[in-house]
Amino acid sequence: MSTLPQIENILLLAVFCLFASLLVLEKKRPYVKHAGAGLKASFSTNASAFIVNNIIMNALSVSSLLLVAGRYSHFGLLGGMSDGPLKWVLSFVLFDFVVYVWHLLGHKYESLWLFHKIHHSDKSFHVTTGLRFHVFDQLLEVIVKCVCAVAIGVEAHVVVVCEIARMFFVLFHHANITIPGEKWLSYFIITPSLHRAHHSTLRSEHDSNYGIVLAIWDILFGTRKEIVPKSIGLELIEADNLLQLFSLAFLTERRLARVIHLLPRKRG
Prior knowledge:
mainly alpha; 13 helices; globular; disordered C terminus
């Protein structure tokens, strides 16, 4: 038990260092050069979403996840295992599978896609895109994780380590970079090239590559696609500030399309 607080601190430091390093790499050697104004707006919107979401999440959600795991984790699948590295690894793998399934469901069901599509509304793809989420999307995910923490039997301190490690990979696979040996690495973990395809404008392309850390789930369940998307983001959905980011979640693409077609169009 005493080892894990040290691991948490090390992982948090690693996350901040990774974020800073990726920002530098994106500036010096980007995979795609984004327009300055659009990139600045995207950075501002994503950073605002991250700050506001984390204030709310810290107050309402993360504490709930830790409380549930702390009180009821001994009932779960791994509840009888002694605390140690094997249990931590199994917990991480099972949690990663849960997030894979939840991510897939977020694309398959429109009621969940309403909130998850906000993450896909970024017209550019860079490390801060990994911070761009609707707060309701994150709240729903925490509820799912609370249930799974009990079902799997993950203790509270292990939940913290799993979440920090997952954040590390989310930042990594959203980075606007290329890395040596990425093709081979992508068979083990989710890389920027795989996740870039997941942010394709085409629904047939972005309904794929749902993995967060481990690549095995997409391989096993046939959801892996190795493609280079022609464009990033969503066709109709745009969010240039925090207010739009929050409100667009309550507007479906079909309803927005109807509104657009009803508006008079300019004739050339």
